[in-house]
Amino acid sequence: MLKKLLVVSALMLGLFLSFAAAAESLECGLCGGPITESSNRFVIVDSEEGQQEFGCPGCGLAVLSLMPPEQYSAARVQDFLSRKMIDAVSAWYLRGTEVGFCCQPNWLAFSSKDDATNFAKGFGGDVHDFASAIKLAPGDHDHSHGEKHAH
Questions:
Q1: pLDDT at site 48
Q2: Structural domain range at position 53
Q3: Across the chain, what does the average pLDDT equal?
Q4: Lower CB density within 10 Å: C or N end of the chain?
Q5: Phi, psi (5° rounding) for residue 7?
């Protein structure tokens, strides 16, 4: 009986670890780049496809800019400093900073304008509110991750 319990437990642990590994190997919904612990994630909840995840605010903003407002119910972005998910519309965006983990130019999100401005003082970039960022991101966002191919 104990042997059977150990085998079942080992199988369940193996299943759990395989699901955990699959969850950790997310890809950006636009450029296909990996979404890792260091990514500044962007999430759109829409009525057609459920939840779409992106590896950086630039990718998320680029997709969101093409969607009519009635097509999505929420957009959230990860605050770069606290790592908490915040409302994308109320977030402040830093474009062109030296720090980034996905596409070019680097985009980061912050919960306050002060945080974005202070970060820009040390690492460069231009601070934008949501209205400005959603207009700017689609036109200048390169998804090649430094590689010589287009997505």
A1: 75
A2: 27-140
A3: 80
A4: N
A5: -65, -45
